[in-house]
Design brief:
23% strand, 4-stranded antiparallel β-sheet, alpha+beta, 38% helix, 230 residues
Amino acid sequence: MSNQRVGSAELQTIPICSSLTEAQLDEVRSAARVVRIEAGEPLFDMGERCTHFYFLRRGQIKLFRAAPDGGEKVLSVVSPGQTFGEAIMFLGENAGYPVSAQAIEASELIGFKCDAIREFLRDSTDTCFQVMGSMSQRLHQLVLQIDELTLHNATYRLVGYLLKQLPEEALQSSDVQLMTPKLVVASRLSIKPETFSRILNRLRAIGLIDVDGSHIVLRDIEGLHYLIDQ
C-alpha cells in the first residue's frame, strides 16, 4: 500500500462517507491508504483474513472463485466508483474473504482498515446505516443476478448485458466498446467461451450487431429488445 493520504473531498464522494463531518472524515482518512496494482495482479485471495475493504478509483477488478477443474467463476466485475468487501467487516476480526480479487487492468484503489473502521462505526449510527444501505443494494443486485442466471438462457443474458452497456440516450444504433475481456464477461454470465462466440456470430448473422474484436456495434437496438422481451 502507498503512504499517499486521501483527501476529504474525495472521501465525501464515497457513499458510506458522504454524510460525515470533517472530524469524522479525519478519523476515516487515518485508516485509508492508496493501493495500486497492475493488470493480472491479485489484490487478495479467497480465505485470506479480511484486513481491508476497498473503493475503486480507476481500472477494473474481478471478484471470482476458483473451480475444481482449475477454471474460475467470475461473480462480479467492480467498476470505478464502487466499494467492495465492506460486508466482511461484520463477520468478526478473523473472517476471510469469500472470493478472490484480481486486477483486470492496471487499477488504483483506496483501502480502508477494517479494524479501525469497525471502531469508528460503533460511534457513528448514520454511517452504519450508510454501510447497511450499500450492502442491501449489493444484495438486491445479487438476487437479480441469480434470477438472470437461473431463469433466462445464454442469449438472453448476453443481449441483456450488451444493452446495459448503452448510454441512456441511445435509440437506434450505438457502439459498445467491451472494456472487460470477453472471457471474463462470459464467466460472469455463466456462458462457455465457445457459446459466447457462437451467440455473437448468430446476432451478427441476423443483422442485430457488428463485431470487430472487443468493439461491438448494436445495429438494431429495437430488435435486440424484442429478442429478450418476447
